[in-house]
Amino acid sequence: MSENCSGNCSSCQSKGSCTDEKRETRLDKIPHKIMVLSGKGGVGKSTVAACLAVALARQGQKVALLDVDFHGPSQPTLFGVAGKHLDGCEEGILPLEVFGIRLVSIGLLLENSDDAVILRGPAKIGLLNQLFDEVVWGDDLDYVILDFPPGTGDEALSACQSIKGDKSAIIVTTPQEVSLADCRKCIDFCKKLQLPVLGIVENMSCYVCPDCHKRHALFSSGGGESLSRQSGLPLLASVPLDPEFLAACDAGRLHQGLVSSFAVYPEMEKLADTILEKNA
Questions:
Q1: How many domains does the chain have?
Q2: 0.85 surpassed by pTM
């Protein structure tokens, strides 16, 4: 990318002569890139991404978590590191290591974690490329989990087009049709960009009573299975609402809450097992 590049390829005068798409970034060198996507906000995509990173790390994998939800970075809150900042060195930006996971988030680059991030499309693409290029991940990673904002906007489009090597997506939904409809668009987005989809994770599939452990369908049920049948994609996990786990996430103790959750952890462990089997 030249110093005069605006990041807006649609208005570029180079007519395809830009070599940006052919460059190799540090992120490309990580063997497996998993993009966690959703068609709709509020479905718990960031929590699923964080839980997947923890589950893979607990199975002996070297894992990084890149939070590129620029306008709502949740990972620092989930891991209890909000207010901390990333350090740098001559080689670039150093990830923050949390429970064996190498974490990078724009929330760790802000002076105040409550500051709004106000960026137009080209600026977001520039920041995304900077994170791809300048983070010093190390040479021993097995996986990087990318937590994207909802929808099929600039960040997901740019990443799908620029990231090289083994990359795939996981689609997160909730059981309701209002979420499933947007996820169908997200699946179509992946097909059009030839991004392999590993499958679907249904979050908030039911409510688990903390006292009797009985499961209750607070929303409509079977939405994930229905989407799986319609799309021909596997249903990788059905993650219930566990009040104790949710309280742990709010308190910045996602790792501890996940490991101790009888309801959530088995589903995330199953998801991690499926991914490891695929890449065995």
A1: 1
A2: yes
